[in-house]
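Q: Give me the 3D complex with pyridoxal-5'-phosphate.
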Amino acid sequence: MGPGPSDVHPRILEALSRPTIGHLDPAFVGMMEQTKALLQYAFQTENALTMPVSAPGSAGMETCFANLVEPGDKVIVCQNGVFGGRMKENVERCGGTPVMVEDDWGTAVDLQKVEETLETNPDAKILAFVHAETSTGAQSDAKELVALAHAHDCLTIVDAVTSLGGTPIKVDEWEIDSIYSGTQKCLSCTPGISPISFSERALEKVRNRSGKVQSWFLDLNLVMGYWGSGQKRAYHHTAPVNALYGLHESLRILEEEGLENAWARHRKIHLALKAGLEAMGLTFIVDEAHRLPQLNAVSIPEGVDDAAVRGRLLNEYNLEIGAGLGALAGKVWRIGLMGHSARAKNVLLCVGALEAVLSDMGAPINTGVTLAAVQKALQA
Ligand SMILES: *Cc1c(COP(=O)(O)O)cnc(C)c1O
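A: Here is the predicted complex, encoded as structure tokens.
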């Protein structure tokens, strides 16, 4: 129950162990086509360029920046946690100029500040933001941010690593231009693959670049020779065949459950965890309107030893919860409810174990009321 990787579904573990076939084997090519269609469903898009990058979420991030940012491009980057900072790094390494819009950690990206920045930077080409900030548990308004960007002739790069499968993301309806995600968060697959999707509008910019994409491996013009449809597939790199069996299975599980049902399950399980933690007296750092169901950041009570609690949860209860990152290190715990981890059983274990450990350490919490609160929320 950390901030990823989440528990991997047993069906995915089984899929990973199947015999490895060639990355150009007709059976594998058939599975690639199915995977692309399933990813289109997960992202809610008809974008033809919707595919998995053969590397973790960070590589999906680099794919978007490396292909879309040309030297000299001005890019507005929203930062309200760790991952916005990485976007800035990406812009700089592509030779672009980042213009930062900073918000406090634990808050959503401020739409008004973004609008003002777009107005004062009419030459900006791209707006980049993180939809679900895993470092804080805050969700930003992707639909409105994209609308603002388009009103000012900017393309968008959206980080949906923690969002996909856990909270609504509607690529076509919200007109997102480019988006990347990861397998090890709400898709409950093993780490190491990054689903991406690019709109026609974004591809236009990639095709009309004045210079080559600086990264050979991530250059979509080349990658599409292998992943694209309607042409003869050519070797680009040896695809991580078994990891892709895993992704394919995870997307089938998502399709069987139904996206809306998966979003509703994350929300329901989050409300149960919230009921238990609040009954204990713990408080969330993100205000209710912007709280992510799949990443719960709670303040560590005064005088409690952060690492000691996490260590005891791990060693005595076989339960991992996440530490705070950056500005929030030592101040919060990050409890993940992602994908297959978002189950009632985990909430009961987490709340029960946390209560046992904290009360044993003499922390100022309420005892004896948490499980009833969780049960009540689960029955709601
Ligand atoms: C996890 C995460 C990433 C990076 O994904 P990796 O698979 O660890 O490379 C990027 N952005 C966000 C918001 C994340 O939560």
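A quick observation: Residues 259-280 form the longest helix (22 residues).
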